[in-house]
Specification:
7-stranded parallel β-sheet, alpha/beta, 13 helices, 3-stranded mixed β-sheet, 359 residues
């Protein structure tokens, strides 16, 4: 039977990588459901947009009537729920959108999925699954340098963003326990790679550097993160939705613990080799590193134990920190049109124009 995968947030950074992987590497039919907020960019899906296996719907996951209609017309065999507000700084400045999308949106999607699943015949009920994609930030931070987040680590979120994701995780597990909805959950470490929205640390550092602008680093840059190349993550997510055990949680990490400062310094070194001439007056891009006031409630260290997904599903990351970061730098240097249109907002203006023409 051909898989029919409804992907929420499929125009976002991780979501678009999942959609590209599904179209390029499987025979699945894919419906990309995305509200197209600031981080949703259909230009990230240009390589698959003409595929007969790809469909797109501009819809809000909080709109129960519209979600019900999409389920009834597309008839998914699985849901991959990635739609979320995801930037910690934005959640601190304006948490309401995170409550609405991450909690209310997930609740709405769970109820629509349950209603749809309950009316399927027994054979199709056995195939259907709801895959909720979450973050390691729900666990809070780690005290020592030897501890790792496991699937059993207690939740202790620190920001409005991570608290909203923790809430959505609990909702998904409750719908499994109470209603029997077939679910799988994944919690991932920090992603990076091509098509990354420019407000995030790695693309921001790259683009500020080549523009000769300061590269901001919070505090002393000693926060530790486990960095996961986005295309490795997409492979893991597709593996889980097709082969994961129902009711289980899988942590997905890159086996790449690095301080934020080391990440930025490595990016500067890669750019030193690749960018010549440099902006006027710059001998090394490290000169642009600027320490700024730390973020409120900033977690010190995240680190994933990804042994479960490796031992049970056979997934391990293909990219090392060095190879993934080099690929990311090369992509941003080679795709100036993409990030310039994001930074200028042109990608939104043209998108709105196309939508108005089709109304």
């Amino acid at each position: 039977m051909q898989h029919r995968v409804l992907v929420t947030g499929g125009a976002g950074f991780i979501g678009s990588a999942v959609v590209r992987h599904l179209i390029a590497e499987t025979d699945a039919m894919v419906l990309n459901v995305d509200k197209l907020t600031y981080a949703g960019n259909l230009e990230s899906l240009a390589s698959v947009s003409e595929s007969p296996n790809y469909q797109f719907a501009q819809s809000d996951i909080c709109d129960r009537v519209e979600m019900t209609r999409l389920f009834e017309t597309f008839r998914p065999t699985s849901v991959m729920h990635l739609a979320a507000e995801s930037h910690v700084d934005r959640s601190i400045d304006g948490p309401s959108a995170f409550i609405e999308t991450n909690i209310v949106g997930t609740y709405t999607l769970l109820e629509v999925s349950r209603q749809y699943w309950e009316q399927l015949d027994q054979a199709l009920q056995g195939v259907f699954r709801f895959h909720h994609i979450s973050t390691d930030e729900v666990y809070g931070d780690l005290d020592g340098m030897d501890d790792l987040f496991t699937e059993d680590t207690p939740y202790q979120p620190s920001s409005p963003y991570s608290a909203s994701k923790a809430s959505s995780d609990h909702l998904v597990r409750a719908w499994h326990r109470t209603y029997g909805l077939p679910v799988v959950v994944t919690n991932c470490s920090n992603n990076y790679g091509p098509y990354h929205f420019p407000e995030k640390l790695i693309p921001l550092a790259i683009l500020n550097a080549i523009a000769g602008q300061p590269i901001p680093v919070y505090g002393q840059g000693d926060q530790v993160r486990d960095w996961l190349y986005v295309e490795d993550h997409a492979r893991a997510l597709v593996k889980v939705v097709f082969d994961g055990e129902l009711g289980e949680t899988y942590n997905v990490g890159g086996h790449n613990e690095q301080t934020n400062l080391h990440v930025v310094e490595t990016l500067c070194d890669l750019l030193d080799v690749r960018v010549n001439p440099k902006p006027q007056g710059i001998q090394s891009f490290r000169e642009l590193i600027t320490f700024v006031t730390d973020r409120p409630g900033h977690d010190k260290r995240y680190a994933i134990d990804a042994s479960k997904i490796a031992s049970t599903l056979g997934w391990t990351p293909q990219e090392t920190f060095e190879s993934g970061l080099a690929k990311t730098v090369d992509w941003f240097l080679a795709n100036k049109d993409w990030w310039q249109r994001v930074r200028s907002g042109a990608y939104q203006g043209e998108r709105l124009g196309r939508l108005q023409q089709t109304d």
